[in-house]
Amino acid sequence: MKRFILIVVLAALVAGAWTFSRTGLHRIYLPTATGITAKQVCSLHFVSGLAPERARALYIDPLLGDAGRFVSMSVGDGEVRSSIFGLYGQRAAFREGLGCTLVHDADAFDPDLALPRESEFAPMPLDAAHRDAAFDVAALDAAIDAAFAEPEGGGRNTLAVVVLHDGRLVAERYADGITSATPLHGWSMTKSLAATLAGAMVQRGEIALDAPAITDEAALEETPEKADITLEHLLRMTAGLDITEDNDGTDPNSDMLFTEGDMATWAARRERLFAPGEHWEYMSGQTVLATARMQEEIEGGLIDDLAGVRDRVFEPLDMGSAIFETDQAGNLQGSSYMYAAAQDWARMGQLYLDDGLAPDGTRILPADWDEIVATPTDGSNAAYGLGFWLGHPRDEALDTGYYMSGFQGQFGYVLPEQNLVVVRMGATNFTSDGGYDLASAVAAALRPAPAPEPETPPVEEAPGPEVPEDGSPQ
After folding, report:
1. In the 8-state DSSP scheme, what is residue 230?
2. Between 252-259 and 284-295, two packed helices, what is the crossing angle to 10 degrees?
3. How confident is the model at residue 443, as a pLDDT?
4. Exposure of 314 by Cβ count < 10 A (0-12 exposed, 13-18 middle, 19+ buried)?
5. From what superkingdom does this record's organism come (predicted)?
């Protein structure tokens, strides 16, 4: 039987069949299958420190399904290669400080670029006294226990949970082999970084939300109306471009992520389907365009761009573990490719609770930026703001908050009313990740704030005897 399946697969490949069916993603374009394997295993191994076999088993094989048996990979010195019987080969290469990049054209790729860290990861100390005073500790522990519990059939794979309250670390837990310093893949949580970078650049006067965002000459020549697309349209997902994202393994977004060497140019030249602001649709390519536009305002080349992100966001927030990856052309991959320790993801959420101020009091974001990112975008059914998802209509505790969210169960909740940040990272596939339940249970574990003591009315003194102006007794 196995021999028959192999013959059928080889015949299909020779005949030009470009997709696998019966995968975790329903079907998958073959270069996407090899691309996601090479890219993800490279980053998860060289950036996150996971063994290649564990990285593939957790993050990749559940997506490939039956197709996985035909996708081979090899790990070399700073690179991962993947192919299907020697066809559709893809290579991802690691560079210090830049993470991993899919190399589609070796002649257009500089393997020697590097950006060593200026600072190392700084772990937060656990504030047990604050935790004990502010929380029902048993309820808090139970919430985290539930987040790590596997449902029937497994697949939840929670890797890290971090909870901040009043800016203090009150809880953290990690899966085996994961530590507080392990950079973890945020997937689309990266879009919230893009919104944060935009805020930092607006604060510095380097860019405006209404700045024209499409600058590719060929795109504008073909469709002049694209000149009306602004940075805000891109960050709010209302640019109207055809960059469909439905995670079926053959959608344009999958092609962009795993087969295109210049994602920003590819996205800019996609068909314009709607006028800017007319139609909301979640598409990662719009955020890729947004970060590419912001790069244009940071002087210099790729190393300068990455150093600029560090200077504007990572360094002021002590996010020493953060790695922001790029495509081969040097576009910052602002939709999907940031890695950071769970504590550092939480630090970015805390920035919003701290009114846009860094721990040393330096203003990073405009004073109203939290209101801007949490303002619902027209057409999103009040679900999406600017780079952040909004609230949870079925849960009062979460309804006034907003959150970072990424594929395979990445969450970072910012809850202003409770002054909480709740981060959950994992490799969840085809089951509930428990992120909503975790944030809700953590909020419920807070002890009620003590009622303020009633003010004591001032005691009025009884008037004394009148004293004549000359002071003599009467």
Report:
1. B
2. 50
3. 97
4. buried
5. Bacteria
Question: 191 and 212 in contact (C-beta within 8 Å)?
Answer: no
The DSSP result for 126-169, as a single string, is: B-HHHHHHHB-HHHHHHHHHHHHPPPTT----EEEEEEEETTEE
- Report which secondary-structure segment, H or E, holds 20: strand 19-23
In whole angstroms, how far apart are CA 109 and each of 41, 101, 195, 264? 19, 9, 28, 16
Contact 93, 42 (CB under 8 A): yes
The SS3 call for residue 424 is: strand
Look at the block and give the residue holding tokens 């696998």.
Answer: 20
Output the furthest CA–CA distance in the chain (Å, rounded). 124
Question: Measured between alpha carbons, how far is 15 from 7 in angstroms, rounded to an integer?
Answer: 12
The whole-angstrom separation of Cα 252 and Cα 247 is 9
Nearest to 313 by CA among 203, 161, 231: 203
Torsion of CA 106, 111, 117, 122, to 10 degrees: 50
Token pair 């697969």 is found at 9
Q: What is the pLDDT of residue 18?
A: 53
Q: Which residues are CB-contacts of 377 (< 8 A; sequence separation ≥ 6)?
A: 236, 237, 238, 280, 384, 385, 386
Among 152, 141, 12, which Cα is nearest to 84's? 12
Domain limits of the chain? 21-102, 128-445
Are the beta carbons of 413 and 111 closer than 8 angstroms? Answer: no
Q: What is the mean pLDDT of each run of 10 residues along the chain (474 residues)?
A: 47 47 62 95 99 97 90 98 96 98 96 92 98 99 98 95 99 98 99 99 99 98 98 99 83 90 97 98 97 95 97 98 98 98 99 98 98 98 97 81 97 97 96 91 92 68 57 49
How is residue 105 written in tokens?
A: 């054209």
Q: Are the C-beta atoms of residues 116 and 96 closer than 8 Å to each other?
A: yes
- One-letter-per-residue 3-state SS of 25-69: CEEEEHHHHHHHHHHHHHHHHHCCCCCHHHHHHHHHHHHHHHHHH
Is the CB of residue 65 less than 8 Å from the CB of residue 23?
Answer: yes
Contact 317, 119 (CB under 8 A): no
| Residues facing residue 29 across a β-bridge | 19
- CA proximity to 84, closest of 22, 25, 26, 38: 38
How many Å apart are CA 463 and CA 460, to the nearest integer? 9
Q: 128-445, what's its fold?
A: Beta-lactamase (3.40.710)
